[in-house]
Design a protein that fits this description.
The protein is mainly alpha-helical. It contains seven helices and no strands. It has a domain at about 80-140.
Length: about 160
């Protein structure tokens, strides 16, 4: 019984020899930006995005449109709700719920975008958070993943073919 459960429910992924240094490099750059006053608290949702790009590059939530637009729209949802309702955990909760409803309807669902929707209400990130912070990072992540998938033969193809 336990053997069957372990085979059914456990993941089969092993550490990615190329993905881990790539992820470490991008997160190190984000950490460096923290010292330039951009925000250390954004590392968890961005780390989740990078993990999805490394281990699940062919699923719909990892495709460029979902990663970039889903993340930007999630952050924008949180920003709008923070402007309208104010800051705090209640607004963050509403932003997360709104993102969970709106993003799938727009066909750009990306799970870390739900966390990014909460950031403006919790971090007071300002009205333009989605564009100077989220958009550049997601573009760098998607473009660098696509380029490296063509340069490194052992890495799976990204993005998934149409």
């Amino acid at each position: 019984m336990l053997d069957r459960v372990l085979k059914s429910w456990c993941t089969l992924h092993r550490p990615d020899i190329f993905g881990c240094p790539w992820m470490a490099g991008l997160l190190s750059f984000l950490t460096w930006l923290h010292f330039r006053d951009v925000g250390l608290f954004l590392i968890p949702p961005f780390a989740a995005t990078l993990t999805i790009l490394v281990y699940l590059p062919n699923v719909p939530i990892a495709q460029p449109i979902a990663v970039v637009f889903g993340s930007v729209f999630g952050a924008a949802i949180g920003t709008v709700l923070s402007v309208v309702l104010g800051f705090g955990p209640g607004t963050a909760l509403l932003a997360a719920l709104a993102a969970m409803i709106i993003l799938p309807l727009l066909r750009v669902f990306h799970p870390p975008a739900v966390a990014l929707a909460m950031c403006p209400a919790l971090l007071h990130s300002g009205p333009w958070f989605a564009f100077p912070v989220v958009l550049p990072f997601t573009l760098v992540a998607v473009i660098s993943r696509a380029v490296l998938s063509r340069l490194v033969s052992n890495w799976s193809q990204y993005p998934a073919p149409f």
